[in-house]
């Protein structure tokens, strides 16, 4: 009998898996690179610190002196009306954005560009940071939160500091209802029943026959052309489906 398992249901546009993007405030990113940033510095003021349902870390709304407004991932210690800057001549302090070549070794950074001008790809989750380990020739060696070391182009930009929201995982859920609303904010399937705990009509791993099947499909039925003497477990049915 055919059945839709979770792997097949994802991506089909149902409410269970559709991203509630209409509730998200903005995508946090660096400023679009321009001549002012390449040759100097652009300053801005923190107008507001926002909680976005699409991000675990708080976002900061920045209005720059050229009247452009952008959103960045807020670092720890950032406050409203604080001045921040972006560019090659910016001061190395939390919230400021600089090219990696202008950031000293040992500095904590986040939202690192993979390629110059892509507005930030690495280290964007709450409470984490990366650290510049060394500068060798035309590459910057950065230690990521996973402890892996990665080489970056010196022209790639990053923001100074540690992302806010570091204590998020330490707060207990207390009850299943809190987990339900947490998952609902991002349209995650919750609660999720284990495949091996289902009936055979609901999932290929269901029924419980042939031992524990929580790690994958049961292999207790031998292949159709199994040689004599093979341990077969359950007997293979001679035919399946509806009689005609």
How would you describe the overall organization of this protein?
By secondary structure, this protein is mainly beta. Helices cover about 5% and strands about 20% of the residues. The chain has helices at about 5-10, 35-40, 175-185; strands at about 40-50, 60-65, 70-75, 85, 95-100, 110, 130-135, 140-145, 150, 155-160. The strands form 2 sheets. It has a 6-stranded antiparallel sheet with strand order 5-10-6-7-8-9, with no helix packed on it. The chain has a 4-stranded antiparallel sheet with strand order 3-2-1-4. The protein is elongated, with a radius of gyration of 26 Å. The relative contact order is 0.13.
Q: For this structure, what is the CATH class of the domain at 24-164?
A: Mainly Beta
From the 3D coordinates, which CATH architecture of the domain at 24-164 would you assign? Roll
By DSSP, the count of extended strands is 10
What order do the helices and strands follow? Answer: HHEEEEEEEEEEH
Shape: elongated
Class by SSE composition: mainly beta
CATH topology of the domain at 24-164: SH3 type barrels
Number of helices: 3
Span of the ends, CA to CA: 16 Å
Indicate the multimeric state: single chain
The residue fraction in helices comes out at under 10%
Largest sheet, in brief, is: 6 strands, antiparallel
Strand content range:
15-25%
Unreliable spans: none
| Average predicted confidence as pLDDT | 87
Strand order of the biggest β-sheet: 5-10-6-7-8-9
- Alpha carbon gyration radius: 26 Å
């Amino acid at each position: 009998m055919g059945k839709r398992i979770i792997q097949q249901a994802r991506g089909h546009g149902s409410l269970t898996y559709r991203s509630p993007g209409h509730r998200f405030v903005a995508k946090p990113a660096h400023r679009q690179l321009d001549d002012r940033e390449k040759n100097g510095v652009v300053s801005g003021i923190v107008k507001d610190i926002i909680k976005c349902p699409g991000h675990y870390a708080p976002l900061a709304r920045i209005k720059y002196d050229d009247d452009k407004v952008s959103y960045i991932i807020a670092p720890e210690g950032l406050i409203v009306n604080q001045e921040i800057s972006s560019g090659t001549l910016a001061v190395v302090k939390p919230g400021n954005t600089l090219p990696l070549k202008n950031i000293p070794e040992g500095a904590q950074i986040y939202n690192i560009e993979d390629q110059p001008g892509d507005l930030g790809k690495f280290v964007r989750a709450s409470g984490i940071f990366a650290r510049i380990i060394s500068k060798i020739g035309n590459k910057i060696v950065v230690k990521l939160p996973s402890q892996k070391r990665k080489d970056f182009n010196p022209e790639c930009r990053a923001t100074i500091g540690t992302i806010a929201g570091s204590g998020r995982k330490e707060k207990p859920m207390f009850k299943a209802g809190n987990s339900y609303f947490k998952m609902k904010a991002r349209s995650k399937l919750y609660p999720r029943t284990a495949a091996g705990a289902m009936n055979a009509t609901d999932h290929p791993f269901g029924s419980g026959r042939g031992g524990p099947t929580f790690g994958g499909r049961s292999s207790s039925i031998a292949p159709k052309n199994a040689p004599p003497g093979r341990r077969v477990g359950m007997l293979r049915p001679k035919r399946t489906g509806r009689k005609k």
